[in-house]
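ok so dumb question maybe but i'm new to this and my supervisor (M.) told me to 'just get the structure for ATP-dependent RNA helicase HelY' and walked off. so i did the thing. is this what she meant?? sequence i used:
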Amino acid sequence: MTSPAERYAAWAAEQKAEKQRADSELSAFTRRYDFALDDFQLAGGRALEDGSSVLVAAPTGAGKTVVGEFAVHLALARGRKVFYTAPIKALSNQKFGELVDWLGADRVGLLTGDTSLRPTADVVVMTTEVLRNMLYADSDLLDGLGFVVMDEVHYLADRLRGPVWEEVIIHLDRSVQLVSLSATVSNAEEFGAWLQEVRGRTEIIVSETRPVPLWQHVIVGEELLDLFVDADGEAVVSHGPGADRHREVNPEIERITSFSLPVDERSGGERGRGYRGRKGTKGRHRPRGSGQHGPPKGRGQGGEQRGRDDRGGDRRGGDQRGGSRHGGPDRDHRGGLHRGGGMRPMRRPDVVALLDDAALLPAIMFIFSRAGCEGAVQQCARAHLRLTDDAERREIRAVLDEHLSEIPIEDEDVLGLPAFRRAVLDGYAAHHAGMLPLLKTVVEELFGRGLLKVVFATETLALGINMPARSVVLEKLVKFNGLEHADLTPGEYTQLTGRAGRRGIDTEGHAVVVAGPRFDASAVASLASRRTYPLRSAFRPTPNMAVNLLDRFDLSRARETLETSFAQFQADRSVVGLARRARELEDTAEDYRTAVTCERGDLLEYAGIQEAITARERELSRARAAKDQDRTRSVLSNLRRGDVIALPGGKRRGYAVVLDVDRRVLGGPQVDLLDTEGRRRSLRPGDVPSPPAVIDTLRLPRQESLGSGKVRKDTAAALRQRLAGQDDDARREVRRRAGRTPSTAASDERLQQLRAELAAHPCHSCPDLESHLRWVGRWRKTRGELEGVQRRISGRTSSLARQFDRLTALLVELGYLRAEGPQAAGDEGEELVPTASGLRLRRIFSDRDLLIAECLEHGAWTGLDPAGLAAVVSAAVHESRRDDRAPEVIPDPAVDAALEASARIAQRLQALETRHGIEPTTPPDPAVAAIVHRWARGEHLAAALAGNDLPPGDFVRHCRQVIDLLDQLTADEQLGATARAAIAAVRRGLVAQEIGR
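this is what came out, is it supposed to look like this??
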């Protein structure tokens, strides 16, 4: 027991601490809110006030930005500057607006590359790239900087833009307190440990508590069912307050998805009742706001009937022709279950209606394609879906009139404004990167005000834009990741569903999965239960980074800087596990080697002859393929307009007619084709394994008329008619007319000699040869795995420094760096410094930085007018989303020559990069250069986009990228004046309005 004096001393100390806390800046800051801050928010604030940097990892919507806002408060209270960074401009703009509302416009600036407002303000919101460029330029704006907030810092895992985050973290002065805000990641401690290593004292604050309870549901057939139930069959929360770990998958879902009987006939017992059949929800499903969604009545809030399907039938009342609600085992077109056919997902308008009945709107439905989002809007329009009342429509109309009045009337159709207005007035819209940013802003504002009830969005919406939704719907659990269609990871599922139920707006959130074919409730339950999101660095040295480092530091310090990256930190940690695996493989390989014996002879020698035979066969096969490629180039070069050809497979198959042959394309020729479906395709030698076969000719319309979709369809119909009677399989037709290069395996002397040696070997006649070779195979497989692990160990130890050395060797060869020092080139003690060309490269920030620098170095872009320079710059920054057809020809010989010169430079650069062991730079992509050229020459948007399917949003975003690179060229002696004129030509009309927004 403590003495009275000790108890008094403890009480006095607590009183003093309490008074200090009451007088602290954190206490003053918390008075902004009418609710108590969470423990993790207070912990973050105390760490900042104590002089530490912080890493705050918390679920989406938990309120981690409060810690970032306290850093703003603390900086202003101490007379310091604070930078607030975000990964994308939309987030920067949103945070800028929030800070202006809080602090006033005079105290907040905005820098996003294409926007510069009050850059000398005490609080400046910016994209991370802007801050990186400031650090490399040693900008005066860094003076007095006390805090940097990096919102969505887990974005450093992004392959293209993630490295910028690490550059900022590494180069930022250690006196600056860093506030890193991240979604919940499973390796937050590892990331925090790296931050401590490179930034000094850093508090790691992890909260896995979701502030708003999240319920999980599944739409099966026409029923909305809870995914998780307790032992009594009652629905339970999956995450957040009230979450129950002792839960199981709703047995009703398993029962429904296991049979093809109607729901009515399957339902049995009381466990796992459907959502609408459950009692005692304690108001969980009341809608937000004053409107009340009751049971389906067949009439909407605006007094008009809603919920009609395409045929005019009521979507909720079953088949209007009679029968039960479910219509027997074969469900009607609405998309339930079909006997023997598995499960078909519910139609999107019906999903919305079901959510509306259950009071689960507003909702975001994630559809992992732009076309799918637009298609969903069209389906709802055809179903005459209306989710708004007359008062809401008046509010929406006022917002539309305010924002869209500046769009020229001649551009309304190309922007799809009539359909957009109709859908928004009815309470739903799409949201994806292909939309005009202005339209996305309208959608975000209307959804935030509760006027839009449903948004069909791609996953880009999950980046952090504040769009409060009561429910999140996932139409599928598979998405295209750029390479293949892959299942959603637990981290992706968590990121998407985390948007359901926003703190301070909703009392709960709901995640809904629409069941489709091969639906697996257990797999969904596993996704919904695991919240893993590992953070993996995407850091790598780039040419621009190399010259910037060597302009500031000596070679040794530059290498050390790379070694401090999170990528190297993770690599070094992983080596420990790899070394343990290598020791295990060494022991296993030795055991297998002992078993590799044969009484008749040397078994490994016999196996070696087998390997030599395999290697020779592969060599002959490669030589045969090379001859096929040479023949293919020759055949493609000799094609003529109107030739009907059969394609042998590969990336192209079927029949097509030749529209044009461009023999000047590097690596070509390139053939422009029209297939039997009326689609234009390009064909290059690498697209097919062997030459196509010419089987006929077809008279074609004029080249310029093929821009019309109707003309292409008519031409395709004529092609199909000409092909009547041909073999349906074009590959068989090719084999009959233009087969592959004959194989030389049967006549190759070396191959025949090896086969003879194998047959004469003593082990060849061993009766246990097959068993012996199995042990050889195991030994070889283990040795191969061991060698692979050893290569990984060797590659990861100082891997970034080796990449940097290969890169600097290339830059020296190209003249961007030069060696300095008393020793001969290559000796220890040599230093590398940027040349005049290197200093120009230092100012170029692009994924193709070295290619752009080479084009400038060789004068490939000189002599162009402003529109021509804009078009060529377009090719330097564009990357096609898919396999586009051949680009339009720009009617300007100077532009054509510049593009051709850029392509030649790219080909030479790729060869050098490959020789130095560096990933080759992608060549220029002129797919939309003609559109930019027309726009820069003054044509309006509809005319600029004529004959192309480039979405307006992509066009505006691409123009921003073009302007950004042009701005980097304004300092160039030869191109500066033209670049400034090109910026003015591109930055006009809708593009200027969007940039200035």
